[in-house]
Amino acid sequence: xxxxxxxxxxxxxxxxxxxxxxxxxxxxxxxxxxxxxxxxxxxxxxxxxxxxxxxxxxxxxxxxxxxxxxxxxxxxxxxxxxxxxxxxxxxxxxxxxxxxxxxxxxxxxxxxxxxxxxxxxxxxxxxxxxxxxxxxxxxxxxxxxxxxxxxxxxxxxxxxxxxxxxxxxxxxxxxxxxxxxxxxxxxxxxxxxxxxxxxxxxxxxxxxxxxxxxxxxxxxxxxxxxxxxxxxxxxxxxxxxxxxxxxxxxxxxxxxxxxxxxxxxxxxxxxxxxxxxxxxxxxxxxxxxxxxxxxxxxxxxxxxxxxxxxxxxxxxxxxxxxxxxxxxxxxxxxxxxxxxxxxxxxxxxxxxxxxxxxx
Length: 359
Hints:
There is one protein chain. This protein has 359 residues and is α+β, with helices and mostly antiparallel strands. The protein is 46% helix and 26% strand. The chain contains 8 helices and 14 strands. The strands form 3 sheets. It has a 7-stranded mixed sheet. Strands 8-9-10-11 form a 4-stranded antiparallel sheet, with helices on both faces. It has a 3-stranded antiparallel sheet with strand order 12-13-14, covered by helices on one side. Helix 1 (5-35) runs antiparallel to helix 5.
């Protein structure tokens, strides 16, 4: 199997990009499904007189164009501030009420003859319709019963239209779609031009990234000494790849190389030995890598140095000897305790027989 630094970059790129693409795609699919709910949909209404049919079918959010709106002179206030105003138009011998925000109401008053494109929510408001009928009857000096049914109980309410919610959903969908597109574009470009890969930034300290990628490709192809799992040793470089990044160390830069062992717990299980390789120099190099198998770290050190770290081997042997001595001491103490308990039991039995003879 041919190894190359270019393949490592491509593999890490896919490992990093694929989960992000899947998560964003899931969010986008969820937003698309949510946008199909009636509370987020906006239907185009060609004829405002169909307001009752739209309400009955559950199509509450509509986009409609109206002409000839006139003010009723009745406003909605929050405290001392007017926030909305009722307008009306005559359709099919009925008064159709339209509640507009103060901003839209000003534009209608400025040019009431121009068609008004409106996003509104259809609401059923019998109280407001009845109030309007009583106001009209009082202004005309007639009985209220004569005005019953004049106003439609269905109202175009611009203030109830969920504009912010719909826009937030729309912009979120667009944003995620754009982000997905940018990620896919980056993956394509970074695959075609490895120097653009974010993981290749580790080579900047050596010089031109593109040139060093080609150099490492030749190293891994023609001067490979050791490769296992995520570790590669060539004649001149140590390369350790992780899911999130790739470490590259020039072997000639290493002045101090050490190997340590520590115990680390994995969950609720027993502690395991972790072998840590440390490489450094007097300048700015400091590198660490952990291994869970001693054989691998020994092979890495051997192919980097050409020989094992003997002082560490002595340390390991000493540690094993201390553990064996500790276990032997614990066993000896356990045997002595068992022997002492046995003597005490024998003494109790002898005392029991002596008591029986005296009796």
